Amino acid sequence: MASTTPSLPQLPEEIPRPNHHEPTESEPLLGRPGDALQRPNSPMYRNLYLGTGILSQAGLLLLLLSISIPLLSHRPLPPLLVPHPLLQLLGLALLIQAILILQPTTKSNPTAKSRAAKSHGILQLFSFLLFLSGTAIIETNKHVNKLAHFHSVHAYLGVITLSLLVVQYLFGFTIYVTPNVWGGEDKARQLWKWHRYVGYGVLVLLLATTGSAVWTEYIETQIGVSKIGVVLGLVLIAAGVFPRVQLGKLGLREY
Ligand code: HEM
């Protein structure tokens, strides 16, 4: 005989909560675990736009167009100035790709992580060469035209940021290639966390340096770059990169 007992109503704790999750090693700064993770068998290039990464790519495009269109339309083109912004912007674009390609990797997929780390190093090397060439051009411009150094906030920020970048490249290079400098592989591995903290700090400084360029006398009075376009581009870049930071990789969760 069928039971006549009515089924009990579901208790609140039995109702599945779709948004509830336990913290995991891959917990990003914003969003749910796995939002910006490289899945097994997923191609590495997808890391470049995964999750919020697409915002960074849109921001880079906006930044590049906002500065290069008015710059290259200006007549006459000052030959020792024009290459500086273009080379620095390309350097920034490669540096962002270097961050985006590595961010979604986890230690649970060591092969993918090691491949992405190699690409990170190569992209950073090319980015560094672009920054170096762009800086050499602007310094030559100052020397040839007998212009004063440290003429703007941009100049101060530029020199500070580039100096920190050199330290950061050496830091990453020695941890990766010559770990004995840091007392062996195990000790060196523990330093990656600090490489990440410094890296994100330098990124903020790089974005500030790029933004401040729009307020230099020459760009403001001669070129007329859209400040809204540049600031929006920089905000989008940051909004793409920072929410994807894995808290475990910064030592803020078990990793
Ligand atoms: C990450 C990107 C950049 C870095 C690291 C950087 C770095 C520098 C440095 C080191 C100087 C010369 C400092 C001196 O000797 O006094 C400089 C000058 C200059 N930069 Fe940049 N720059 C960047 C991006 C840009 C961009 C995107 C523009 C254009 C929109 C730009 C426009 C200028 C101008 C016009 C000067 C000469 C004026 C001045 O020194 O006040 N820079 N930059």
From TrEMBL:
Ranges of Basic and acidic residues composition bias in the record: 14-24
Cofactor(s) the protein needs: heme b
InterPro entries, sorted: CYB561D1/2 (IPR045150), Cyt_b561/ferric_Rdtase_TM (IPR006593)
Pfam family, one: Cytochrom_B561
Family matches, as PANTHER family: CYTOCHROME B561 DOMAIN-CONTAINING PROTEIN (PTHR15422:SF45), OS05G0565100 PROTEIN (PTHR15422)
Region (Disordered): 1-37
TM region(s), chain numbering: 48-73, 85-102, 122-141, 153-177, 197-216, 228-245
Protein name, UniProt field: Eukaryotic cytochrome b561-domain-containing protein
Domain of life according to the entry: Eukaryota
